[in-house]
Design a protein that fits this description.
about 240 residues, alpha/beta, Rossmann fold, about 30% helix
């Protein structure tokens, strides 16, 4: 399924300027590359190049891996492949400044950004909380967990909105992050999709350095753009 009717833009729009900063966007669980079109548009209008993809197996058209532990490793790898393409193979790569690459991630995309920035995961801690019969928990309890998760030092700063999987992070596993971070968290979260507001707040407090932290009096999905009137009408039929 798609989540909005269309994206406003110009196909094959010529690039103007040099040494342009690049921002990579990572969507949440079951989202899609256009799910943060408002953020992408604002950044593009401000002179940034913005790139986003659908995470294979964890997007609105294909959720075959959304409940699998494998996405915890595949998501960071997806972003690394996207970065490789942008700086090495994109037709306008010469316009980019490779020293000014940033990241924006929402929910599981926020988790992705923490890993890419240098965080590791405490699966033993996670196993004590993961007691239901889902495929995800079964894999955690079996010990079949991803190790040596990829990071990418090309990312120089990140903005994270309500990062998911807060239980796998501690101040010790977050200590490897060495880039500036801005964190936005919702005060209400949404425990039905695994976003515990207290857990997100704990992760934000445990980040090294002096991250820029903001709390908003809203729920988890307040970080997505509002539904268009056209799409809302379709949902009612």
């Amino acid at each position: 399924m798609q989540f909005i009717d269309s994206l406003q833009g110009v196909k094959d729009c010529p690039i103007t300027g040099t040494k342009l900063p690049l921002v990579i966007i990572s969507h949440g669980r079951g989202g899609w590359f256009g799910g943060h079109n408002d953020v992408a548009e604002a950044l593009a209008d401000a002179g940034f190049v913005v790139a986003a993809i659908n995470h294979p197996g964890d997007n609105g058209n294909d959720r075959s891996q959304s409940d699998s532990l494998s996405v915890m490793a595949s998501r960071p790898a997806d972003i690394i492949r996207l970065l490789d393409f942008m700086v090495n193979n994109w037709k306008d790569k010469a316009a980019l400044d490779p020293n000014r690459i940033g990241f924006f991630g929402f929910s599981k995309g926020g988790y992705t950004g923490l890993v890419l920035g240098g965080a590791t995961l405490d699966f033993q801690r996670f196993a004590t909380y993961c007691t239901n019969d889902t495929q995800f928990c079964a894999q955690v309890r079996s010990g079949d967990v991803p190790r040596d998760l990829p990071r990418d030092s090309r990312i120089k700063a990140a903005v994270l909105a309500d990062p998911a999987m807060s239980v796998v992070f501690t101040s010790q596993t977050l200590a490897g992050i060495g880039i500036p971070l801005q964190v936005w968290r919702s005060e209400l979260g949404d425990k039905s999709v695994g976003i515990d507001p207290e857990g997100v707040a704990r992760v934000a407090r445990g980040l090294p350095g002096k991250p820029d932290i903001h709390a908003v009096p809203a729920g988890h999905f307040a970080f997505l753009p509002p539904c268009s009137p056209q799409f809302a009408a379709k949902l009612l039929h």
